Amino acid sequence: MRTERLIIEPLVASHAEALMSLLDERVNRHFAPEDVPTSQAALRAQFAEMAAAATNRRDGARFLPFVVKTIADGHYIGRLEALVHAKDAEIAFVFIPQSWGQGFATEATSALMVDLQGAGVERFWACVTPSNEPSLALCSRLNFARSELPTAFALATYDVGDIVFSFEVVNERQI
Asked: Where in the numbering of this chain does the N-acetyltransferase domain appear (predicted)?
């Protein structure tokens, strides 16, 4: 995928070197401490596992991990993930703090949502730690609404205490 300012590409193990500093940011570790490998080798292994999971899920869902880089300088600034269950997609995002406030997360996540909508997704879900103000703001900018947990499937990124958001596509120009 490509936007005016960003390239969004499928995650592969070799992205580990470029993304280690992104995931090493203290603020990102605060919101997802258990998910952040502490070495480049561990991150490479995690990315290889994530890339394999995209095609090897037992539950029939499609896991789609992506990395986001700027066109202007080619720097990687974030990661996006989608777990697609038929017409529902759970999305997750992490961006370096230096990229905050420039609209990159909104631009990238919107592009992902448009792409998934084109593949038949009608409802999007996101789980956010209540203290994660940047992610709460992103959900607001994307017109997500607070929601109850879905009943048809479990949200993979949900932790007790998280705020659950959903966005239902009403028409094709909505995103």
From this structure: 26-170
Sign of CA dihedral 11, 63, 68, 136: negative
Distance CA 86, CA 52 (A): 20
What's the pTM value of the predicted model, to 2 decimals?
Answer: 0.84
Q: Per the structure, how many domains does the chain have?
A: 1
pLDDT digits (tens, 9 = 90+) for 34-76: 566 667 788 778 777 776 766 656 677 889 999 999 999 999 9
CB 92 within 8 A of CB 81: yes
Instruction: Note whether 154 and 164 are within 8 A (CB).
Output: no
Q: Tokens standing for 123? A: 């409802």
> In 10 A of CB 104, how many CB atoms?
20
Report the 10 Å Cβ neighbour count for 5.
13
Cα separation of 170 and 174, whole Å? Answer: 7
Task: Provide the residue range defining the domain that includes 38.
Answer: 6-168
Q: Dihedral angle at the C-alpha atoms of 97, 102, 103, 108, nearest 10 degrees?
A: -60
The DSSP letter of residue 149 is P
Asked whether the beta carbons of 156 and 126 are under 8 A apart, the reply is no
- Residue whose structure tokens are 């990395």: 67
Task: Kindly list the strands in the beta sheet with 145-146, ordered across the sheet, starting from the edge strand earlier in the chain.
Answer: 6-10, 62-70, 76-85, 88-95, 123-128, 163-168, 145-146
